[in-house]
Each structure stands twice: as C-alpha cells, then as structure tokens.
Amino acid sequence: GAGVSQSPSNKVTEKGKDVELRCDPISGHTALYWYRQSLGQGLEFLIYFQGNSAPDKSGLPSDRFSAERTGGSVSTLTIQRTQQEDSAVYLCASSEDGTGGYEQYFGPGTRLTVT
Amino acid sequence: AQSVAQPEDQVNVAEGNPLTVKCTYSVSGNPYLFWYVQYPNRGLQFLLKYITGDNLVKGSYGFEAEFNKSQTSFHLKKPSALVSDSALYFCAVRDGGGGADGLTFGKGTHLIIQP
Hints:
- The complex is a heterodimer of chains A (115) and B (115).
- In chain A, 0% of the residues lie in helices and 48% in strands.
- Chain A contains no helices and ten strands.
- Chain A has strands at 5-7, 10-13, 19-24, 31-38, 42-50, 65-69, 75-79, 88-95, 105-106, 110-114.
- In chain B, the strands form three sheets. In chain B, strands 2, 5, 6, 10, 11 and 12 form a six-stranded mixed β-sheet that branches.
- Chain B has no helices and twelve strands.
- In chain B, a hairpin with a 5-residue loop joins β7 and β8.
- At the A-B interface, β4, β5 and β9 of A face β5, β6 and β11 of B.
C-alpha cells in the first residue's frame, strides 16, 4: 500500500521567507510525527499529533515553527521568516496509534535549503 | 529525559562475517526500542523493535537485536553481512510508560560491508 508521502521533496528559499511543508500519512494512521535531520543535530523530534491535536509543542525549535493537522490526515509544518539554521531535512512519520509500541513509518523527507 | 548512545560512528565488516552495531539507552520507564536503517537520499526504514517479551527480536533483512535490561543495551546483529547492508543505522527509544511521544534517536552508525 501507499506509504507516507511528503511534498515538496526539495525546497530552496531565501532567508526571511515563509515555507510550508506537507505530509500525507498512511491511511488509517491516527498518529503523525515531524522530525528534523541535520548534520549538526542528528534526528530531532519536533511535534506529534494524535488525531488533530498536538498535546506537546515544546519540541518546536522556536515560535517561528508551527504545525497543524486537519481531518486526522494531512499535516503541514510552517516555518515563518526562515533562517539559515533552519536548513535541514524535515521528516514526517505516522503510526497506527501514538500509544503502545507501534512503529513509525517515515516519509522520504523534504530537504529545505535557506539561502 | 531519555537518551540513546551509539558509540561507534562507523563499523567496518567483511562480507559474510557477523556484524554488531551497538546501542545503549537511558529512559525512566519501560523502554520501547527500535532500529531503523537509512539508505542514501532515502527516508528511514523500520527494521525491528522491542516492546516486551522475548529479549531476542528478529526483524527485516535477517537482522536481530537483543534487549539487555541490566546493561541497558539493544545491540543490532546479523550472522552474515551482505554488501547491500551498507547504510546508516539508527537506534531509537521511547518511554513506554510516559504516554505518547516522539522517538529519541542516537547519532547513527555507518555500517560499511567490504566485499
């Protein structure tokens, strides 16, 4: 079946611009996660959704980052006023449920480059 | 807080030999442990997990891992390495008693299988 999809696959933007990253989880998965992968920081957990709600937003790096999920499916991660340190690969994952030991399935990522 | 340590940045193994990729963890509650593999320019692929039960878990592509509670370790193993196993491997943990949350990943270990 279809896996997690993300768009765009690559995004180059100028410093100060806003960007929106999209994630389509596996159908039926109620939990959705955003991570960031960079050379300096490795894999960082950003935010988690169970259904449409995000219980804990403390993993977001700054108040320039926000995320939402609608209809229990598609999620968007928005970065406002991008900075060069935001350059990274942004990974989305989904799982059947956020509780229990369900494994997360990852999308191919969006490579963001801020110039 | 939870953490994962992968003490080796790189592991080199000759094809056909057994391989081990080391992982130790720290978590306050019951550990949910995962191994993922990442091929170049690809997302993370789930290999195997330990939630409860038998300490030896088997996963995809002939990999297995042994959960050792006293040593807080979850080393990844394979009896006979293939060149195609060359990739970046990540160990991850979540606190099973802490409710839903994202995964905490180690820094990753590059596995290089030499023909």
